[in-house]
Fold MFS transporter.
Amino acid sequence: MEQTATAADAAAADTAGPPPATPGRVHRAWWVAAVTFVTIVGAAAFASLPGLLIEPLHAEFDWSRGTIGFAVSVNLALYGLTAPFAAALMDRFGIRRIVALALLVISGGSLATVWMTAAWQLVLFWGVLVGLGSGSMALAFAATVVNRWFTARRGLVTGVLTAAGASGQLVFLPLLSWLVEHHGWRPAAVTVALAALAVVPFVWLLLRDHPADVGLAPYGGPYAAKPAPVPGAARRAVAVLLRAARTGPFWLLAGTFAICGASTNGLVKTHFVPAAHDHGMPVTAAAGLLAVIGVFDVVGTVASGWFTDRFEVRRLLAVYYALRGVSLLFLPMLLAPSVHPPMVFFIVFYGLDWVATVPPTVALCREHYGDDSAIVFGWVLASHHVGAAAVAFLGGAARDAFGSYDVVWYASGALCALAALMAMVIRRPARPAPAAA
């Protein structure tokens, strides 16, 4: 009996782990969250630059806007397609290694563009290298950090890390646009490379894969041993995709989210600055407006989460897409050499709707796919970036063909109307029949 009790006590002690952290001392999880925040803010620089490069590269190399847009589309497509596997890579090799390697790849790809002389090099350096690197630090990075390091305050930390992308856009867009306008595009590319490189030491020294690596419990939770590497996570991601692809709601969600990406990252983030410049607006002013979108993006996302808990999500999603479509139809009439009140109203309105579609889309994935919903959303997110990639290329090609972006704005408004209709026809999940008396 005594031996049995001793063994049980030892097992309990092993499960309990080390004693709680000293009261008043900042838990290591908050430092990990801070490093993650800084990393995501730095990653926003990579997403901010492509829209500022179109006019300078066209002027210097005489590359068509379609060619430049194709490089951006490769970047966006790889960003989206890498995202579903990013969590699997982190489970297999660790968060710190994957993020540090991704930052080095981004830094190298951005720096190499300084010496490029052919369009294929832009596709390779900015499209492939920066696309793969930034995709490895997509949504899965923040989600993995929150799930491992936090038991309490998960919602708060997730919201803050989600807002980091918008904060980074606000920080980097004005700076990069000023560099492009006054010193050329090469210093801006070097700035992005250095921003990525500067974060690497913080990631390597302060970021840890799991609380157990430093003998701690997650913030607000019990101690847990570090799980073994999961080599089969990528196979599960593919298996979940194959199962979901046999259902109608998946294709409707993927289709609506592809239009979401087309009308945000692919269109506005990539082509708003050159389109405004076509109408005589200075690049710095147009980039400043794009940064303001990032501010209201945070407000709109938080509000959308509140609405999602209280309203029918299909109708909510349809309203978001319909309002976005209407705003894009009016945009060609608002572009002018200077910023005026109707344009400011568009920026605020559009910013509130920018990623408001995410909470209801996540809720619909949860309704239909249960335990697999996170992976299904990863694939739906991939469709978002594939849609963005298509319009990043087609928008530039349309500008080359028609001499303006007007047709692109009108077509995107029509696509948003289609997305609103698609959202309304997503069926409700079947309810189990009540048991017979």
Observations:
- Residues 1-19, 432-437 have pLDDT under 50 and may be disordered.
